[in-house]
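User: Show me sequence and structure for the first protein, then do the same for the second.

Assistant: Starting with the first protein.
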Amino acid sequence: MKCQYCDFKETQVIDTRETENLEATRRRRECLKCHKRFTTYERIEEADIVVVKKDGKRERFERQKLINGILKACEKRPISIDKIEKLADEVESDLRKRDSVEVDSKIIGKITVKKLRKLDKVAYIRFASVYMEFEDLDRFEEELDKLQKK
């Protein structure tokens, strides 16, 4: 494995663990040259998930796009990258359990928003405001009221 810091081609695995859902192996590595540490994940290569967009176009599911969206929602919140990775793992796992490899983008949003609601209320509202496309302040306040009642 190539070091992400100095590009040296030899690293040493110093710790190996399975993720909670057993869908990936987390490896903590140390570069044999610069001695910096970094984490890698080993996953089974599975059939591609195809996302059906609002306009009917289809594209391959990109986990990093999901993580980027979650990161934006969680910006300046006390949420670790590990929790964000775990949430993305859960969403992807839910998508893979579906009968079809084609998934509507709205389904991805719905699954993500549900999981974010449990993780952090502010991140949930941020993500929901984009996903649910609040058209005005009344719709936004309606969602806040629902959140406060629960």
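Switching to the second protein now.
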Amino acid sequence: MRNYQNKLHPIEIALLLALALTALWGAWSLQRQDQLERKMIRLHVIANSDEEADQALKLQVRDRVLTLAEGILRRSDTREEAMAELQAALPTVEKAAAEEIAKQGYDYSVKARLEPAEFPHKTYDGFALPAGEYMALRVVIGEGRGQNWWCVVFPPLCTTAASDRNETAIAAGWEQDDLGLVTEEDTGYVLKFRSVELWETIRRWLGK
């Protein structure tokens, strides 16, 4: 008599197929996340505290830094070029932020750095970004213990009109798949975010 004990049952086969599909989906999700992170630089302005005056100051510094950064990055066609330009301009960014702080009547210190930073899932006007680690121009005011403000400085998605946003992103090296992930034109982007963020969490838990 033939031995059937080592044969897989249909339920076991289905579970193995589901695990395989899940692994493939996870790999795709992580690849999409990595590709997206490598195509942008975010701006992260951190207030001295949560007091109303410090939060108002944060926005004044944000406006000053955004204007300066956009002028600097007009010469950049890729994220690598943008990073090089910003790295060289960090003293200028700090000086501009310090001037704005003094102009508003404060004597807080300020530090500008270009470094990886963790960001939560964030929804803007017409697009959203999944949580993850992104390269960021970080401007820390004073003790840096207040609520922060973040956006995308390269490409300048947060200061570009919604009608021009896709063109701006494409010019910076984005593809249609990238736009489909982050814009509201793709109604499934929230579900995609959850998948991307889940697998990003698992990867970090496993130590990559």
